[in-house]
Write a structure and sequence with these properties.
Number of helices: 2
Strand order of the largest sheet: 1-29-28-27-26
Number of strands: 30
Shape: globular
Strand content: over 45%
Largest sheet: 5 strands, mixed
Helix content: under 10%
Mean pLDDT: 92
Distance between the termini: 28 Å
Radius of gyration: 20 Å
Length: about 350
């Protein structure tokens, strides 16, 4: 008999029109933020008119760590080639008002990412050289739109980054030879030595544990792009230890998602679908996911007919059924055994939730 999920809490769910807050016991929901209100209160979305998309796209919404604000990215205007010029706003869920973030010179958009405390954002700006897409430089900005700060150029088109747990610096993903802490107050960058790794290996994704004491990251070698190794280290990147390795298509971007109890990490691999790059896409590429036991340094099997979503508050894995109608399941990560969830969730949450929160 499946064990029920403990401390059901609240599920944040994006249904395409609204982001909902759903009571995990009853299935009752309230609207946190709607895309219709964003177009009314901020700016009209023009994605349907663009060459970039060619059809109306859901406005991108990223909630702040405390879920009081949202980073809202809208295709607000078009250039002469009908490509989207993006507008970024920090939107208050309480007051329903937004602050427009400044746009770096000559940029079409910025891949902004929240700092751990929600007071700042950092990201890579990008633009075009005639028809060719390129990321240009890293920037930081306060969440109230003040103090746009250049942090240095993007090297080798590597635009991803991770925030330091204390929010003072970011780590642009780079080759091991150039891996650094970049401080948002423009203090001199600090070189990081990753003992035992080759200078031609590149950081692909990185995340710190919930308590900030450990980091899990993956690397690929320049001469073996379709093979990836996973490492764990202390927060300062000392005591680097390999967890596992596997083959993976180099076109896939990865994201590390720690379990709340810090025993497991879910590595989400998704094909790079940024339409602004102008690359031809040959249909929908399947997601590829990995599950690693950090305590035993072992790679675990995941169900082939389910899509990994993330974690419940008590460290069980959430999966989405790979059908048009969707539906979610919850399984224990150690042995893929089912965990019971309330019937109300089954009808209210059809696809991967944004986040599953514990009881207050």
């Amino acid at each position: 008999t499946p064990e029920p999920v403990q401390g059901q809490g609240t599920i944040l769910y994006d249904n395409g029109n609204d982001i909902l807050s759903i009571n995990a016991n009853s299935g009752d929901s309230t609207v946190l933020i709607s895309r219709e209100e964003l177009e009314t209160n901020l700016v009209k979305d023009r994605s349907a008119d663009s060459y970039t998309y060619g059809a109306k796209q859901p406005i991108k919404i990223s909630l702040s760590p405390d879920r009081s604000k949202a980073l809202v990215t809208i295709c607000a205007d078009l250039d002469a080639r009908y490509r989207c010029l993006f507008s970024d706003h920090v939107y208050s869920l309480d007051t329903k008002t937004g602050v427009k973030l400044p746009v770096p010179p000559d940029a079409y958009g910025v891949y902004w990412q929240w700092s751990p405390d929600g007071s700042k954002l950092a990201g890579a700006a990008w633009s075009y050289d005639r028809a060719v897409y390129f990321p240009s430089a890293f920037f930081a900005v306060n969440s109230d739109g003040t103090n746009l700060t250049p942090l240095g150029p993007v090297v080798n088109e590597r635009w991803q980054l991770a925030w330091q747990p204390d929010g003072t610096a970011v780590y642009p993903f780079n080759f091991v030879a150039n891996f650094q802490s970049i401080f948002v107050d423009r203090t001199k960058p600090q070189d990081i030595s990753l003992t035992g790794l080759d200078v031609n290996e590149s950081i692909e994704c990185l995340a710190f544990s919930p308590d900030g004491r450990k980091a899990v990251f993956t690397v690929r070698n320049a001469s073996q792009k379709n093979h990836e190794r996973v490492y764990v280290a202390n927060f300062d990147f000392s005591d680097v230890t390999q967890l596992t390795e596997y083959d993976i298509d180099s076109r896939y971007l990865c994201n590390v998602n720690w379990s709340p109890d810090q025993r497991f990490v879910h590595l989400r691999y998704e094909y790079d679908t940024r339409v602004e790059t102008g690359e031809e896409k040959s249909g929908t590429e399947p997601r590829k996911d990995k599950l690693v036991n950090v305590e035993t340094n072992s790679l675990l099997d995941t169900p082939k007919d389910l899509l990994t979503c993330g974690w419940t508050p008590d460290s069980n894995l959430i999966y989405e059924t790979k059908t048009k109608d969707g539906g979610i399941q919850v399984l224990s990560p150690a042995n893929n055994s089912p965990v019971e969830i309330p019937a109300g969730i089954q009808s209210a949450v059809l696809h991967c939730p944004v986040e599953w929160l514990g009881e207050p």
